[in-house]
Amino acid sequence: MMTQLAAQFTQSVAANISYWQQRTQNLTDDTLPALDQERQNLYRAAKFGLHVPHTWQQTAELILQTFVFVERRGYWAEWLPMLEQLLQSCPADNLAMRGRILDHLGLFYRYNRQLDAAFAAHQEELQIGLMLEDKWREAHACINLGAVCQQMRRFAEAETYILQSQSAFQAIHAPLIKHAFVLLELGLVGKGKGQWAQAEEYLGYSVSLWREVGDPVYLANCLKLLGEALAAQDKTDAAFAAYHEALECLAHTENNPDTIRVLNELGSLHLKQANLTEAERLFLRANASFRCQSGNLFDRAVVANNLGVVYLAQERLAEAEQFFRSSLALWQSCADPVQQANTLGGLAEVKTAQNQLAEAQQLYAQALALLADFPDDAWGQKLQKGFREAACALKEARDA
Hints:
About 80% of the residues lie in helices and about 0% in strands. It is mainly alpha-helical.
C-alpha cells in the first residue's frame, strides 16, 4: 500500500513539474502577469520536485527555465534558497549542470547585493568552464566576475575578467548579444573610474548593438547607463533623451526593476537642474513601484536617499531625515560602503541645518571612514573631498 502511495505521489509531482515546464517554456511580457498571480504554486511545485529523486532533472530544468520571470519581476531574493538547494542536491560529477546553476546563483546573489557569495559562485563556475574546456561557460563566468568586481569597485580586476570574457566569446563566435554585454560592462568600469568620455563611447556602441539585437529591456538598461555618462558630462539634453527613450522601451514590458532605475536617474537629472517638484514626483513614483517587488533592497535604498536629498533641498528637514534614515537602514543589508557614506553625508547636512553640529560631525567622520577604502573610485573621492571640507567648516563653527 505504501509503495503504491509513493508511486502515485511521484507521478503527481512529475505531472505538476511537466505542467509548469510547459507554462514557463516561452516567457514573454504578455505571459508574465498571469504567471505572477500563480508564482507561489510554481515555487511549491519546484520544492516538491527537488525532494523526489525521479523528478530532480526535470525540476532543475524548470528552475533554470524560469530565469527571465524571476529577473524581470525582481523575485531573486525569494528564489535564491531554491537555487542553493538545487546546487546542494546536484551530483558532484554533473559539472555541466552545476555550471548552469552557479551562473544563475551568482547573478541573483549580485542582484541581491551578496557580492562575496556572487564572486565565489562565478569563480566555481569559471573553474568548471576551464575543466570542461567550455568557452561558453568560461565567458559567462568571466563577464559576471567582471560585473561583481565592478560593483565591489575593484576596477582593474573587473577589466581583466571582462577582457577574458570578450576573448572567449570571440573564440566561439558568440551571438551579438554577448558582445553588447561586454561593451556595457567595459562602459561601467569607465563610469566607476570617472572616465566619462570612455564610458560614453563604450555604452554608445553597446546601445547600437542592443538596437540590432532588438531586446527592449536590455536596450533600456543600456540607454539608462548612457544617460548617466552623458549627465556626468553636462550633456543634459542628450541625457534626458536617453532616459525618456529608455522609459518608452520599458512601457510595454513587465520589467519593474529597470523601470524603477530609469525613473530614479531621470529624477536625479531633474534634481541636478533644480527641478525639485518634478524630481520629487519621479522619486515618489519609483518608490511606489516597490510594491510590485519582494526584494531589491539596493534600489529601495537609492530612491529613499534621493527623496531625502529633495526634501533637504526643499528645507523639509523632518521628511529628509526620515528618508535618509530609511536609506541607511537598507544599506546595512547591501554591500556598498560608498553609497552608505553618501547617505550619511546627506543626514549630516540635515543635522547641520538643525544646528545639531556634534551629531553632524560624527556622521561625516563615519562617512569618511567608509570612503577611505576606495581610493580608485571617482565618486568616492569626490564625496570624500566634499565631506572633509564640510567637517572642517563644522569644526570651525563649533570652535567659534
